[in-house]
Amino acid sequence: MASTGDIKNGIILKLDGSLYTVIEFGQNKTARAAAKVWAKLKGVDNNRSIEHTWNSGDNVYPVRVERRNYQYLYKDESGFNLMDTNTFEQIIMSESGIDRPDLYKDGQECFVLVNTETELPMSVELPPNVNLRVTYSEPGMKGDTATRTLKPATVETGATVMVPLFVNNDELIKVDSKTGAYVERVKE
Asked: What does the H/E/C string look like for the chain?
């Protein structure tokens, strides 16, 4: 058990029988009333996003979670097939438990969040950035780099990423796995 002073971004809390990860938190202090701690929470075992407020010093119930290295193998009608890189054990996750499913490619490294109390997988995350090859993009105009103009590009996973005009077909780019935004070109 912990108190509201232990809340930080990324921690997973048990609240009303469901698990939530803390996206953002803060504290409100007023002259007359006791301090309040608020948090924006995203459901781990459901797709809900909520805001919750506690009185300062209230008890919260964090859940111990392990990040285990897995490799994405393939997707079929049963879901996303993943393999533990240490034990070679395979699991199947539904698309609702996958973070940014449009950015996964065969052989991609990923992390499975496992609840240590039940040993059940909760969700799957990608590393902060992933390298993907551009399969199609409209050609850009030569010399048109003065503005921050973007164009759509299709990457090898089928996802569409907005890229600068100088990015061409068959180039390797780095994509932010949280937002799906272009980061930079990758030298080969």
From this structure: CEEHHHCCCCCEEEECCEEEEEEEEEEECCCCCCCEEEEEEEECCCCCEEEEEEECCCEECECCEEEEEEEEEEEECCEEEEEECCCCCEEEECHHHECCHHHCCCCCEEEEEEECCCCEEEEEECCCEEEEEEEEECCCCCCCCCCCCEEEEEECCCCEEEEECCCCCCCEEEEECCCCCEEEECCC
| Distance in Å from the first CA to the final CA of the chain | 49
- Distance (Å, rounded) from C-alpha 158 to C-alpha 153? 10
pLDDT in tens, 119-174: 888 888 889 999 999 999 888 766 666 667 888 999 999 999 999 888 889 999 99
Reported as a single tens digit per residue, the pLDDT across 94-128 is 888 888 889 999 999 999 988 888 888 888 888 99
What is the phi/psi pair of residue 96, to 5°? -70, -20
What is the CB-side half-sphere exposure of residue 140 using CA atoms within 13 A? 20
> Given the structure tokens 């232990």, which residue do they identify?
6
Is residue 135 a contact partner of residue 155, using CB atoms and an 8 Å limit? Answer: yes
What domains does the chain contain, in order, with CATH numbers?
2-60 (2.30.30.30), 65-125 (2.40.50.140), 129-185 (2.40.50.140)
Question: What's the rounded Cα separation, in Å, for the pair 17 and 51?
Answer: 16
